Structures are given as structure tokens and as C-alpha cells.
Amino acid sequence: MDVNNFKSIPNELFSLSNVKDIFISRNMVESVDQGVVKMISLRRVVLSMNKLEEFPSPFLELSNLKIIDLSLNSISHVPKDINKMKGLIGISLADNSVEFLPKELGEIKGLTMLDFSSNKLKSIPVEISALPNLVVKVEGHRDSIKHFATMDFEEDGKEIHGVGLLNGEKTVIPPIQYSGLNILFNNVERLDSSFCKVFFLKKDTDALLECN
Q1: What whole-number distance in Å separates Cα of residue 65 and Cα of residue 91?
Q2: Does residue 1 form part of some domain?
Q3: Which domain CATH number covers 172?
Q4: Residue-number span of the structural domain to which 172 is assigned
Q5: Residue 113: inside a domain, yes or no?
Q6: Residue closest to 71 by CA, chosen among 107, 29, 132, 41
Q7: Across all residues in the chain, what is the average pLDDT?
Q8: Is residue 34 part of a domain?
């Protein structure tokens, strides 16, 4: 549903409770209607390159949501109650106008991939540095993922890659191999030393991080 000049998520989708993924990039979406909470199976929402100025609050009620990509919008605020999104493993708010991240992000223990690059951040909550999947040493790490829309899910393996799975081949790359925190192109001057434990961290060279 990319490139359709939508100003909101089409209401017709709200009755489709089995839909798992929504891709509405490069549109004109300004807000998200409360009706989206009816889509109880949603696990991935890609709303990059739209006209959002606020973090869509209805998403906070979607407990099955795993991936949310709101990059290339004009969002300036991330709500504290984002910790309601207990199922999140990946979030991108790259290329927005975010000035502050709530410490409550550190309560979403499954978070694995975080991209806050190209914003207006001056600091990063220390609670983020303690996220379990950020401090794991990963063999075969593949750098931070750039396009959440291209990720496959393990549960889809038999549908999409059935032959490969039958032959014992690993066809779905686990999120942990893209784990990391990207805070490039912000205004962060100093990071707490606890971020030394983060396995994969992309930061500006002038963001001071002193590690022993």
C-alpha cells in the first residue's frame, strides 16, 4: 500500500483481524485512527516517510506488535507509556525530530533493534543500556537492520521457505543478529559508561563514552 497518498490507515483494514503486517510508506498519513486496535494480530507496522507529527497512541494497545517503523516523519515526542508495548523487538524512529527518550523503553525487555539516528537527542537513558538483547555477544552479527519491511519471521518459514526448512536449512535470520542501538547524527555529547556493555552501538565520534 506504499505510494497511495493515504492520509490515514484505510478504515477497511480495521475489520481484518488476521492481518499481520501493514506497509504504508511514502504516503501522507498524518494520524492513526483508534480503529487500528481491532487488528489484534498485527505484528509489524511500517509507516515510514509520512506526515506523522505525534507517536500514534493506538499502537500502545497492540500487545502483539513486534516491529514498528516510523522513520522519516516529524515526530518529536515518545510517550512514557510506550512500555505497554511489551511485545516489541524492533523500533525505528530514525529521521524524526525526537528530543527526548523515556526511560520506560528499558522496561521492554525483548527490544533488540533500536534506531534513533538523525534526531535531536541530547542524552540516552541508561535504562536502555541494560536491555538484555543489547548486551549479548552475537556471533555472525550482520550490522543494524536498515529496513524492517524486509525482515522475515520464523513463524512464516514453512509458508515462505518450506523446501529450505525441510532440508534443514536456516532460512530466517533471527533478530539478535541485527541487534543494536543506532544513535548516529544526534546531539549526544556523553554516554554513561554502562553503554560500554552494549554489543553493537552506532554513535557519533564526538559522543564521549569512556570504557575501561
Answers
A1: 10
A2: no
A3: 3.80.10.10
A4: 11-202
A5: yes
A6: 29
A7: 90
A8: yes
